[in-house]
Amino acid sequence: MSANLKYLSLGILVFQTTSLVLTMRYSRTLKEEGPRYLSSTAVVVAELLKIMACILLVYKDSKCSLRALNRVLHDEILNKPMETLKLAIPSGIYTLQNNLLYVALSNLDAATYQVTYQLKILTTALFSVSMLSKKLGVYQWLSLVILMTGVAFVQWPSDSQLDSKELSAGSQFVGLMAVLTACFSSGFAGVYFEKILKETKQSVWIRNIQLGFFGSIFGLMGVYIYDGELVSKNGFFQGYNRLTWIVVVLQALGGLVIAAVIKYADNILKGFATSLSIILSTLISYFWLQDFVPTRVSLCRQARVLWPDLGSRQPPTPWFKGFSCLSP
């Protein structure tokens, strides 16, 4: 049963990661009549859906008793205001990160985004060393250096691409800055969240409810500040269609899937799942979205990024647990 849950959770992770990137990219580039949906409102809806999912999981853990559910929520959230407030910091960062991912996928093809976003492994490692006093071995530092080199090669245009990228240099730069900022925010928030989880005995689902609560507040503030006029003019759910709701649901379930992988699987298998997701995203980006043209050079560049995940010759050490944060 445990083995079945392990591979089931990994399969769901591959599906969730790949489908989220591709559907988000497709939804942001699809040309339709009328206004496009607002990414700020999609982030808020995703947080609300995540709260609902976590409440259902807590309800299940409470033996499907509404009285027990109410007691758990009251004791763990309302009666512990300081513990709840600790989640405001990572929640605000996650909200910023989720909005940045929409910006990144509006300006980068899915394959380039997937590869560049793997830099969050490097930022998570750096924050783990500085905030949790974790130690990395020579092999781990070598893997991280190769990862960083591979991402740099992915972003470096070849001679045959210079002319075609000249007109879109501005949008490429915006997308790159967005995904790099998301990598740093993901690393810091993930390590901060891990530190909170280790210092308390509250369940992951309770912590996700707290994250979602603050995330909804920060998200609504972002909607009001940046898209208030558009919302008042065309409504909160302007531009929403079936594809938009798929993106929102996939984003909401992202943190829950990662939590299941951490519980039932291990990090080396998670690395294989992430690598497989990058390969699938590249193939589908080429055959379906047609916004990525693979060459021998680009494939070699991506191989440099995949190597730290697929080339490991030793099992993950305990410090590597910190690399599996609960961010989308």
Radius of gyration: 20 Å
Q: Supply the number of structural domains.
A: 1
Could you describe the largest sheet, including whether it forms a barrel? none
Instruction: Return the string of H and E elements.
Output: HHHHHHHHHHHHHH
Strand composition percent:
under 5%
Low-confidence stretches are 158-167, 296-328
State the total count of DSSP E strands: 0
**Overall SS class:** mainly alpha
Per the principal axes of the C-alpha atoms, what is the gross shape?
globular
Fraction of helical residues: over 70%
| Amino-to-carboxy terminus distance | 27 Å
Q: Please count the helical segments.
A: 14
Give the mean pLDDT.
Answer: 75
Protein name: Solute carrier family 35 member A3
Membrane topology: Multi-pass membrane protein
Keywords: Membrane, Sugar transport, Transmembrane, Transmembrane helix, Transport
GO molecular function, one term: UDP-galactose transmembrane transporter activity
Please provide a brief summary of the model:
This protein is an all-alpha fold and 328 residues long. The chain is 78% helix and 0% strand.
Question: Can you walk through the features of this model?
Answer:
It contains 14 helices and no strands. The chain is mostly helical and 328 residues long. The protein has one domain. It is globular and about 50 Å long. The two termini are 27 Å apart. The C terminus is likely disordered. It is found in: Golgi apparatus membrane. Its main location: Golgi. This is Solute carrier family 35 member A3.
